[in-house]
Amino acid sequence: MTSSSPSPKIALRRAAADDAVPAANVLLRSIAAALPTVNRPRSDDEVRDYFRDVVVPHRETWVAEASSADGIVGVMVLAGPKVSQLYLLPGWRGRGIGDLFIALAKERSPDGLTLWAFQVNKPAQRFYERHGFVAAEHTDGSGNEEREPDVRYVWQP
């Protein structure tokens, strides 16, 4: 399949204060599309406030910005050697942005990474496994605020 217009370029960069709400919106849209059955313990406004007040100013937050009018199309939050969040707008999955984020995370933590994924999120699990992550622990969800069974993944170089 060919397209009459070139694909937008993607740039990864550290999030700035003005990126907090667009980054939160990426998370919200991604979860709504990919995880509609997962309990959401916070309202959309609470998520946006959390990104504005905590995530962007106090966490290592990265955004993927498209050169098109779409603006921010992905977000990744690192907490040391942990990928605490990685979300893409639904229409931007499968375009290599997640690959760029994981490469950046590995560059930032070359000694290894860990992350959690919900057990119902099979596409995410396949994605992480393609990038060398191995399932290290399965839980019943009692340790997360969604109360959703999850799996901890580990990557070691």
Automatic annotation (TrEMBL):
Organism: Streptomyces sp. SID12501
Keyword terms: Transferase
SUPFAM superfamilies, per database record: Acyl-CoA N-acyltransferases (Nat)
Superkingdom of origin: Bacteria
Protein's name in the database: GNAT family N-acetyltransferase
Biased composition (Basic and acidic residues): 138-151
Domain N-acetyltransferase intervals: 10-157
Span list, region Disordered: 138-157
